[in-house]
Amino acid sequence: MKKTDFQNDWQWRKLPEGSWQHTDLPHDAAMTEPRVQGAPGGVNTGWFLGGDYEYRKTFTVPVSWQELSVIVEFEGVYHNAEVFVNGQKAAARPYGYTNFYVNIKPFLRYDSENIISVIARNSDQPNSRWYSGAGIYRPVWLWTGPEKHIEINGIKIDTLSVDPAVISVQIETTAAGDVTVLISRNNCPVTSVNSKTNGRLTLNISVPDALLWSPDSPNLYTLQVIFGDDQQEISFGIRTLSCNAETGFCINGKRIILRGTCIHHDNGILGARCFFDAEFRKVRLLKENGFNAIRSAHNPCSKYLLQACDQLGMLLVDEYADMWYIHKTKYDYAGYLEQWYEQDITDMVNKDYNHPSVIMYSMGNEVAETGEKRGIELFSKMQTLCHRLDPSRPVTAGVNTFFNYLYSLGLGQYSDEKAEKNPDAKTGSAFFNYVAGLTGASFMKTMARLPGCDRTTRDCYSIMDAAGYNYGLLRYRHDLRKYPDRVILGTETFCSDAYTFWELAKMHPALIGDFIWAGIDYLGETGVGAWEYKQYAPDFTHGVGWMTAGAGRIDLIGNPLGEALYTGVAFEELSGPQIAVRPVNHYGERHSPSAWKFTDAIPSWSWTGCEGRKALVEVYTRAEAITLYLNGKKVRTRKRGRNCRICFNITYHSGTLTAVETDKEGREISRASLETAGKETILNIIPEEIHNDLCFIHLDLTDKNGILKPTESGNILVSVSGGKLLALGSACPYEAEGYDRNVTKTYYGRAMAVVKKEDRCIRFSAIWNYTAYTKVIQ
Length: 778
Prior knowledge:
Strand order of the largest sheet: 23-24-25-26-27-28-29-30
Structural class: alpha+beta
Shape: globular
Distance between the termini: 35 Å
Helix content: 10-25%
Strand content: 35-45%
Number of strands: 45
Number of helices: 14
């Protein structure tokens, strides 16, 4: 069937009586809502009020379509979506993160105008633990084809072997007939097969001189199926996958340790809007910073994210839900899941099946149900369904071992009565996050070692393909000995534990991976991972004005922080030494607390106005020792301990800061330096490469050589021609104004604009400090 973009020229309004406004999709209606104290979503959703919304599109259907199948695909509508065609209800879907298909043919008027309308509800607050967005936030597609056609999701490709390379191709059609299969790579033919089908066909095809898919070499092929007047193309990779306690996680027979991180679905200052360029950029940034795997916390990822992972060689664990039948917020998906999980999981697996990047399915996150008989039985049903739909991939669930134990004691349990009495009561995962914020990461990890934590997790772990541990690092050694056949996956972990995990995983194949929370900062869960100072946040209550979690190793607009450098060295992906410095202008100041951050250091030695002040320098290395030099003079030498982070308290003086790695004999291995920026400050407009039509434009306050000046600040006013300004903002967790204006404040000398290209070139203009700057972007 032919797939056509169905995203332009929609209208939307807020129900019940909002005015109709033009929009192209994707669209995030939540971003149009006010943020107020007392909003039911609270810190979880960034204090946005909820609302219900209607979308509609008018389109003409030619008479010739009477002979065609006509289907509309929605990749994501948040949430409780209803679809109407010419006033008649055509479909409904409660979950806000699964794609679904609507057969609109029975409702069409031929040679006439038709109206498709969608209602998306988000007034039932609270319904999410993070910023969900609202409305039709992912792409919409129109599928048309002859009555005799290849089924949508009717092509499934498996790798049977890699030496020689043989794939299995399953094809489902609506009728019998002749089938041709063509395989190519980079538009060059590889092989072809002709056959006949009675509606279901399986072909085993040898691929000569095959180039395998792996994270290091993400080679992709194109498979084209021709059936009568219909044809479909599928991108695929040739790779095998295995996972067991003896050999660990393997791709093409080679062990790979998962250097993973968790991400939410939003795209920073773009809100929940899902564009290919934004998803591709997200994956690229994570790959560049040493990660080789993503966990789509805590919902099925977008199709664009899958494509990006395939192309860039990023492994993916696709997750289903944040809860099962026990609520975490009053109006979340717990009321629907047991009725809908079979359809939801079927759609998720169909979405993922042909993508070599997808290595595992996760059925849930911090689901205390795993400590109960009913919950264990539910997981077993979901895992069995996954195995039936896709026998090649293992299944897990992220289980917070300490939270399971606390829940069994009656702590953190949700009830409507409790929520009515105290809307701010912490329950479920939010309760664990609250306790972690009070007691710190070490306490939470230590408590996970209690015998009760084993008792409330072992039964569900015993049936999982891979046992998912959230914040269970200190259990690993014990459980590797006690349960030698158990595959252990750190489904959610603290960044500070990356080095310890990596060293342990190298010795124990049963420990297959680690997923740090979180790879990139995200909207909602305001302040949970932030170390913020009064300069940027007037209070530390995480109330109205706070926008993001502040929990990324990469900040909201894509800049790697010191913690990203640390994890890169810990995972042996970045060579040392890597240098980062805690904000010298805030040395000794109190900051907002968080267990999810262990440093706010950034790679800069440009702290104007801080001469003679104390400075905390962090060097990340795997060498025996680091010697620190300032302006050519030795400061001191420190040996590395049981981690890859060495800290120096020194006095700040502008100039050149150099870290030198040495081995056990004191011989130099390598060195790195940070330079102080020059006196003059300019606004440096730095566009990233445009892939399709989005341009991410860095707005950095630097010297003439491009060295960042993090203590410089001010408002930046922008204007655009040849494109549309989609978002403008900074990485500051506290953002009272939002991202839909044409002016923004900088944060540590940085901001970003996202522009959709609409002409041959973009003319981007900005004013900072009464000076105008212009950049023409091709």
